[in-house]
Amino acid sequence: MVVKKDGRREPFDRAKIIGGIKRACEKRPVSMETIEQIADRVEASALERGEREVASTFIGGTVMTELHEVDQVAYVRFASVYRQFRDAEQFIDEIKQMDKS
Fold it and tell me: Cα-flanking dihedrals φ and ψ of residue 20, to 5°?
């Protein structure tokens, strides 16, 4: 089960993870095979925790880590939705943080 930020619980859905990654990678040079591999690693990370429930924040953070390694534009796209950027300043701050890592 996945525990959402608002406390709701829903079944783990690999298709939702793939959908989010695909949206972030749209028009980027990231293959469907790579997207599937990212989803595999995210799912494995969740299972490795050995818990019945996993926080959606863990899943989102893991996706962000994976995308950061694969395609930085896709990473920023995903981060902007996941972290709910409210303005351009937050977007710029995220890019500056990328430059530091």
Answer: -65, -40
| H or E segment and range at residue 12 | none
Let me know: does 38 contact 21? Beta carbons within 8 Å: yes
- The number of angstroms, rounded, from the C-alpha of 15 to the middle of its chain's C-alpha atoms is 13
pLDDT of 85: 66
Q: Does residue 100 come out as left (phi exceeding 0), alpha (psi in the -120 to 50 range) or beta?
A: alpha
The answer to whether the beta carbons of residues 1 and 9 sit under 8 Å apart is: yes
Instruction: Average the pLDDT over 48-75 and give the result.
Output: 92
Distance CA 91, CA 87 (A): 7
The identity of residue 81, as a single letter, is V
